[in-house]
């Protein structure tokens, strides 16, 4: 998390050297000198990588469009010599310039100048290249020589230039703490206009001083504590203390900005018009036309983005995107909107934040809040329809196409003043049918699996089969079952049936399990085998604690119907049973049915998540209910080793006292006959075929 403060370590990147000189200069005249403590009152045991940040200072001069940064850190361990000897500053050369003012090493009170422009390398990093996004960012990097334990490194620089796409309207986000303790964080903002600001997780107010034609807003945080992170904290949760600044007065200001940025100023090209006409004549209903346009943009316009400068916000012209057949989220969204509007269908680009969800209401209005662009369509019946043109291999009719649960979006429609609420219809249903045919007791079994994926889950599996070879998928699926069985051999390649209209993707698998029986833990004279609804294990994790400070994120939405059919080699004395667990977070039902005439045991599991998260107050009750589910999810068959195959041709005559209710925990060590018990099932492995 130290990367929040101008990271001092290089990451993997595409490298090509640019013969560009790094400029040096005196610090700007308006910069206020900040002091720091060489031994701040912070817990050094909580500091990682061998060095501690003594001070981070950012000063923003809005009228001059300059950001001044100063960072001071002290090396305490040998590890810090390695991790803190590189200094890197990133900037966008299309509208920004970089100047270093100072790089000093303070050793035993002596200041050693390390600023030498000839020692810099300017490198183009493309950290999102694997996602087909290229932002053109340059990194100026210097590797400091002769760095020792005890050294204090003090450097400062200024980056000049705000993205011109905002036309002088300023907004920014500043950190007020970090994942590790910091001696001092100082934020200074100079403005000739009144600033609107907002903070999260702190009520600290700025000190405001008048300086000639400007006001200086100052926030100082001393000896900040380490942040305690908790597993499964929702992405939308603001864990850090943040400062938000914005000159956008409201969301309508952002809509007005976005309408101008996304405005199409040229007529539709002849080539695009021909494609539009082909869709209009090839499909009869409005819904079919909407789906056809979406399919074209998703499947025939590949995802590729050049995000430098204006390109980080402004889409390319739809004619260009149509011709080049590539674009990023905003390019593809505007192309889809343009084609639909030409057909007389109402459509708008929509800005969303993929992580913040409802917590977007906690930030100030600004375009920089958003990280993605999608499309809203209003059909002839007045229904709101949401589409993500960057997704691929989607199935379903136009009104049942999966859309992620972003919760809120800003529709770029003239006069719009608020965020739109987005409701996802998807249940993400998966139906699984496991059919086990057991050989002799103590031997192996054949497993045949049929899985039906619905909605977004069908899209995911369709994509898996479209983008991977069958041998790779076969290996991936086999490895999945090897997590639960010792010896697994695939009997054939997985096959599938794709119903793209109903968006149901059915996969068939078959395996030979060499051995499914093993000595029971605590009783070596008893053999046992268990049957688990693996699809539930994919989405459930039993927490290791029952108390926490933050919300706990749940897998939502999710519906799982998992049926297990076990063809037994003998007759068993098994009673029908049922179990229900109903709580705010989830609903679970299990049914056990034994058909002695067919030697068939049928186990039915139904699970549905009902909440996106639980609060810290709700968490203990959630853990309690999940433990109850844990104690009721696995089905265990066991038999004494001294029962031979001939003796077990019919086991239904064993004393009834040895047949235990499925949903009662018993001591396995004292069991001497055949029975059915629950076994601890939930694991924190979260293994999934998808």
Write the layout of secondary structure elements.
Layout: E1 23-24, E2 51-61, E3 66-75, H1 78-83, E4 86-91, E5 97-107, E6 110-113, E7 120-124, E8 133-134, E9 138-143, E10 152-160, E11 171-175, E12 182-191, E13 196-200, E14 207-211, E15 214-224, E16 242-246, H2 251-261, H3 270-282, H4 286-300, E17 302-303, E18 305-306, H5 318-324, E19 326-327, H6 329-342, E20 346-352, E21 372-378, E22 384-387, E23 408-411, E24 420-421, E25 429-438, E26 445-454, H7 455-467, H8 470-482, E27 488-490, E28 495-499, E29 504-513, E30 518-520, E31 523-531, H9 534-537, E32 552-553, E33 559-567, E34 577-582, E35 586-595, E36 600-609, E37 613-614, H10 619-630, E38 635-640, E39 675-677
Parallel strand pairs: 1-5, 2-12, 8-18, 17-19, 25-33
Antiparallel strand pairs: 2-3, 3-10, 4-9, 5-6, 5-10, 7-9, 11-16, 12-15, 13-16, 14-15, 20-21, 20-23, 21-22, 23-24, 25-26, 26-29, 27-29, 28-29, 30-31, 31-38, 32-37, 33-36, 34-35, 35-36, 38-39
Organism: Sinomicrobium oceani
Keywords: Membrane, Signal, Transmembrane, Transmembrane helix
Pfam families: DUF3857 (PF12969), Transglut_core (PF01841)
Question: Would you kindly provide a written description of the structure presented here, covering whatever features stand out?
Answer:
This protein has 690 residues and is an alpha+beta fold. It folds into three domains: 2-247, Immunoglobulin-like, CATH 2.60.40.3140; 255-421, Roll (C8orf32 fold), CATH 3.10.620.30; 429-677, Jelly Rolls (Sandwich). It is built from ten helices and 39 strands. The strands form nine sheets. Strands 1, 2, 3, 5, 6, 10, 12, 14 and 15 form a nine-stranded mixed β-sheet that branches. Strands 25, 26, 27, 28, 29, 33, 34, 35 and 36 form a nine-stranded mixed β-sheet that branches. α4 packs antiparallel against α6. It starts with 22 loop residues before the first strand and ends in a 13-residue tail after the last strand. Residues 1-19 and 644-687 have low confidence and may be disordered. InterPro entries: DUF3857, Papain-like_cys_pep_sf, Transglutaminase-like.
């Amino acid at each position: 998390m130290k990367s929040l403060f101008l990271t001092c370590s290089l990451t993997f990147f595409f490298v090509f050297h640019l013969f560009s000189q790094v400029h040096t200069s005196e610090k700007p005249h308006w910069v206020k000198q900040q002091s720091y403590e060489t031994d701040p009152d912070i817990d050094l045991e909580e500091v990682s990588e061998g060095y501690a940040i003594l001070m981070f200072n950012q000063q923003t001069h809005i009228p001059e469009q300059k950001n001044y940064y100063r960072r001071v850190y002290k090396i305490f361990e040998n590890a810090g010599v390695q991790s803190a000897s590189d200094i890197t500053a990133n900037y966008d050369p299309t509208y920004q310039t970089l100047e270093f003012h100072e790089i000093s090493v303070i050793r035993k009170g002596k200041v050693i100048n390390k600023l030498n422009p000839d020692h810099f390398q300017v490198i183009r990093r493309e950290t999102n290249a694997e996602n087909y996004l290229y932002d053109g960012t340059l990194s100026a990097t210097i590797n400091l020589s002769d760095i020792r334990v005890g050294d204090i490194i003090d450097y400062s620089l200024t980056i000049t230039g705000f993205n011109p796409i905002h036309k002088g309207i300023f907004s920014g986000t500043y950190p007020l703490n970090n994942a590790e303790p910091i001696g001092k964080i100082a934020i200074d903002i100079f403005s000739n206009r009144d600033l609107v600001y907002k903070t999260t997780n702190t009520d600290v107010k700025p000190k405001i001083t008048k300086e000639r034609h400007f006001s200086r807003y100052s926030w100082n945080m001393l000896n900040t504590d380490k942040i305690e992170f908790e597993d499964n904290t929702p992405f939308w949760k603001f864990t850090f203390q943040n400062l938000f600044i914005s000159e956008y007065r409201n969301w309508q200001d952002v809509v007005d900005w976005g309408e101008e940025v996304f405005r199409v100023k040229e007529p539709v090209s002849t080539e695009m018009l021909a494609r539009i006409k082909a869709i209009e004549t090839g499909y009869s209903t409005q819904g079919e036309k909407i789906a056809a346009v979406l399919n074209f943009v998703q499947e025939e316009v590949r995802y590729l983005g050049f995000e430098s400068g204006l390109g980080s916000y402004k889409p390319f012209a739809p004619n260009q995107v149509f011709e080049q057949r590539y674009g990023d989220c905003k390019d593809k969204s505007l192309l889809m909107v343009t084609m639909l509007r030409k057909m007389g269908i109402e459509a708008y680009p929509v800005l969303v934040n993929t992580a913040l969800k409802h917590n977007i209401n906690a930030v100030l209005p600004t375009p920089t809040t958003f990280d993605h662009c999608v499309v809203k369509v209003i059909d002839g019946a007045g229904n709101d329809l949401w589409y993500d043109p960057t997704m691929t291999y989607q199935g379903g009719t136009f009104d049942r196409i999966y859309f992620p649960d972003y919760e809120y979006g800003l529709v770029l429609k003239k006069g719009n003043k608020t965020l739109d609420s987005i409701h996802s219809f998807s249940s993400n249903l998966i139906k699984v049918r496991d059919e086990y045919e057991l050989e002799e007791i103590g031997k192996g079994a054949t497993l045949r699996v049929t899985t039906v994926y619905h909605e977004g889950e069908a899209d995911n599996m369709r994509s898996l089969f479209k983008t991977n070879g069958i041998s790779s998928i076969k290996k991936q699926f086999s490895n999945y079952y090897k997590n639960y069985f010792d010896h697994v051999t695939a009997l054939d390649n997985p096959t599938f049936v794709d119903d793209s209209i109903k968006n149901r993707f059915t996969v068939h698998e078959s395996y030979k399990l060499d051995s499914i029986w093993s000595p029971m833990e605590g009783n070596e004279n008893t053999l046992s085998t268990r049957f688990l609804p693996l699809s539930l294990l994919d989405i459930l994790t039993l927490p290791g604690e029952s108390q926490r400070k933050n919300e706990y994120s749940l897998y939502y939405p999710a519906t799982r119907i998992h049926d297990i059919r076990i063809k037994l080699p003998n007759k068993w004395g098994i009673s029908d049973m049922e179990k229900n667990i109903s709580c705010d977070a989830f609903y679970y039902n299990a049914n056990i049915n034994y058909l002695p005439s067919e030697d068939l045991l049928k186990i039915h599991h139904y699970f549905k998540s009902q909440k996106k998260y639980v609060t810290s107050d709700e968490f203990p009750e959630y853990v309690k209910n999940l433990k109850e589910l844990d104690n009721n999810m696995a089905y265990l068959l066991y038999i004494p080793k001294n029962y031979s195959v001939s003796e077990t041709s019919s086991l239904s005559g064993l004393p009834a006292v040895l047949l235990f209710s499925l949903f009662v925990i018993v001591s396995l060590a004292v069991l001497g006959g055949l029975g059915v018990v629950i076994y601890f099932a939930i694991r924190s492995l979260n293994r999934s075929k998808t």
